[in-house]
Amino acid sequence: xxxxxxxxxxxxxxxxxxxxxxxxxxxxxxxxxxxxxxxxxxxxxxxxxxxxxxxxxxxxxxxxxxxxxxxxxxxxxxxxxxxxxxxxxxxxxxxxxxxxxxxxxxxxxxxxxxxxxxxxxxxxxxxxxxxxxxxxxxxxxxxxxxxxxxxxxxxxxxxxxxxxxxxxxxxxxxxxxxxxxxxxxxxxxxxxxxxxxxxxxx
Length: 202
Known about the structure:
It is a single chain. By secondary structure, this protein is mostly beta strands. The protein folds into two domains: 6-102, Elongation Factor Tu (Ef-tu), domain 3 (Beta Barrel); 113-199, SH3 type barrels (Roll), CATH 2.30.30.240. 7% of the residues lie in helices and 45% in strands. The protein is built from three helices and 14 strands. It has an eight-stranded antiparallel β-sheet with strand order 1-5-4-8-2-3-7-6. A six-stranded mixed β-sheet has the order 12-11-10-9-14-13.
């Protein structure tokens, strides 16, 4: 295993903005390569940073990445000092984290999924008035486009207090909203808000 500094997850030396971006799924080849499975279709964060933080349980290691590149749906990487398959397999199962501040800048109109989580989603009620529908708890990929997982609230005007919308069993209702231009009118990350034409109650 390559030399790296270690510490607990709460180590104050760790960057405060670390984001989980993938995990080491397997060794790649016989010369110490690693196969990393990104947690979203966006692998830019893995490719754009040469310093990764790897976590397993309470242990965290900082690793300087020698090389990283796309390989189909995964990212392949090499670490200094990791030169054979057995050394690479020692990293299997470790979670890969990268500081949000090191994510590459995206083109205008593109967004990292991690930045969408927690945003308020607005939509339209039966009278075509803008209302808050809920907040984004997760983003997934259906193979064609991103999907927003939205924890629903009782529809209210933007800026008003919200209450969770529950089903007949008292569970929080969730709706899935395609993150495509046909439904999404705009994203304001500073305001933590996504405006859509998604209908209330859909």
